[in-house]
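Run log, item B.
One chain of 145 residues. Sequence copied directly from the ordering sheet:
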Amino acid sequence: MATAKETAQSAVEQFTTTGNKAFKDNFEKSLGVFAELNAHSKKNFEAVVASMTAATKGAETLGAHAVAISKKAVEDQMTAAKTLAGAKSVQEVIELQTSFAKSAFESYVAGMNKMAETVAASMKESASPINERVTAFVERVQTTR
């Protein structure tokens, strides 16, 4: 029969073994969680970089459109001024000016529509990587429940 001392030693050894195993299991689980968080953070950073790249590209495209619209407007104004200078009557000046105003307005509206489309496409493209990460996060939270 085991003595009280032997029983106590056995209980201490069992407690120590169980405690060590629990510590090891929890430590390994924590390392797994940290690795997962690190991977998640890396993907988030990559999404932010992709988003900023798309936004920058959109801004460059928008700037190029603005320059092209301005250049065309100046060229059209120069052409109109030369045409108006060659007019032979007040009636012809009025007709030419009306035609130029209509053409300028149509060009302006077309340019603004093109710029609005560019902004919308750029916003959509730059938001896409962030939206994907938010969706992944929500799915991850729902699976951990």
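Observations after the first pass:
- The CA atoms of residues 84 and 94 lie 9 Å apart.
- The chain has a mean pLDDT of 90.
Flagged for discussion on Thursday.
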